[in-house]
Write a structure and sequence with these properties.
Layout lengths: L1 H22 E3 L6 E3 L4 H18 L6 H18 L4 E5 L6 E4 L3 E5 H6 L3 H16 L2 H14 L33 H17 L5 H14 L14 H10 L1 H13 L9
Parallel strand pairs: 3-5
Antiparallel strand pairs: 1-2, 4-5
């Protein structure tokens, strides 16, 4: 019996190694190796389900100015990425925004009220789009499935319908609020977002100002929802400052090409 379990354990290990090798891909933007083996169609379906549930459970803002401002910024950014994106402003005081697989963007009124201008909002939305472009939800889901559930979970035909599985997308069980990605993924999304906003004609220097404001907003209080599981503010700011010369070069090229966003809060 002991020999049998030993063989079974070895076979399972070999199978996991095989999956790791097959599922190891390269991030198309940064070149970082990623473990991804879930079908993108399944990840997109889960993102769509989560977004649909969120729209049913949370109030959607009916303030024209907030909607126009948020949509203006998000639409300019998504022109750089291509594809059709759905953008919804939620009436919620949290300092939060998110982007989901299947090209869904949610922006909370609390965040809109916090930012001073279009560039600061572009820094947050660009960061969230960066998660989608880098397939971080699939990476996170693949890692967790491999670590916690093994291969057996892949055989469940109701995978995409199981509410618990939405957490694997980076979504919380309640209202689909973003749960933590890894620090590496967060840093990656910061740089991608900074480059994206610069290419769209938004001032990347405002990305640093934005995170300074977020830091101030969280002092002496419970951590802001958007920041509660993210890298330390000062580390995030240092990284953005280090990458600023490249971002400013992209920004200057965009402005020279006629990219002058005019989104007014």
């Amino acid at each position: 019996m002991i020999g049998f379990f030993s063989m079974l354990k070895k076979a399972y290990f070999v199978l996991l190694v095989a999956i790791f090798m097959v599922g190891c891909t390269t991030n198309p933007i940064t070149g970082r190796s990623q473990l991804i083996f879930m079908p993108e169609t399944q990840i997109d379906q889960m993102g769509l389900q989560a977004f649909t549930a969120l729209k049913e459970q949370k109030p959607i803002s009916n303030i024209p100015q907030s909607n126009q401002f948020a949509r203006c910024v998000a639409e300019i950014l998504t022109k750089e990425t291509g594809g059709q994106w759905e953008i919804v402003v939620f009436n919620d005081s949290s300092l939060n925004a998110f982007a989901l697989p299947s090209n869904k963007i949610g922006i909370y009124t609390g965040l809109i009220n916090l930012v001073d201008n279009q560039d600061q909002l572009a820094a947050v939305i660009g960061h969230e789009i960066g998660h989608v472009l880098s397939k971080h939800s699939n990476e996170r889901a693949s890692q967790q499935m491999l670590a916690k559930e093994g291969l057996g979970i892949l055989s469940q035909s109701s995978l995409g319908q199981n509410p618990a599985m939405l957490g694997l997308l980076g979504l919380g069980a309640q209202y689909g609020i973003l749960m933590p990605f890894s620090r590496e993924q967060e840093s990656e999304a910061d740089i991608i977002g900074q480059e994206l906003m610069a290419k769209a004609g938004f001032d990347p220097e405002q990305s640093v100002t934005l995170w300074q404001k977020m830091e101030q907003a969280s002092q002496g209080k419970e951590p802001a929802e958007f920041l509660s599981t993210h890298p330390a503010h000062e580390n995030r700011i240092i990284q953005l400052q280090q990458h600023m010369p490249d971002a400013m070069n992209l920004f200057q090229q965009a402005r020279a090409a006629g990219q002058h966003p005019q989104c007014h809060k």
